[in-house]
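Box 3.1 A note on notation
Throughout this textbook, protein chains are presented in two layers. The first layer is the amino acid sequence; the second is a token string describing backbone geometry. Keep the layers aligned when reading.
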Amino acid sequence: MNIFNCFKNILNPNKEIISMPLLKLKRFSTIKWSHIIIHHTATVDGQSFDWESIDKYHVQENGWSDIGYHFGLEKLNNEYVFCIGRGLNDKGAHCADNNMNSIAIGVCLVGNYDIIKPSDEQYFLLASICRNLIKEFEIPIENIEPHSKYNKQKTCPGKLFEMDKLINKIRGGEKNV
């Protein structure tokens, strides 16, 4: 399964193909991505489209050209969906420390993983997108890192988020959903 199939199959709860957001995915990015940074919103994931609110906040309040992350995962109508943010030809706005915005793809889970644990389904889906990005951009697995590694004031992707569990699922060493 390539990255395009992953999004077509999971992006829309009605399994419709949404061509507009998929145009942001570029197989041949002009940026040499070497890392993936995992984030959380530190907010409760509601039944509304939170990704849209985050995008609006980043653009209107922060004055950015787009949402800071490249990809997101949130629960919408009791189903997890992948959300597409910035195009992969655009530097991120998710981790300024160590110039990571220039080399790291930002992936954000909607939810507060300081107070609740991510579900097995979330780990499985996050591992799926990371696995595809690793393959597509030849990113070493050890370069999948939490935001908190670079910004010590952050707990991102949450105190209860287990990076080892994610890495294990990416490697296929743990039973998936």
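The longest helix spans residues 120-137. The mean pLDDT is 81.
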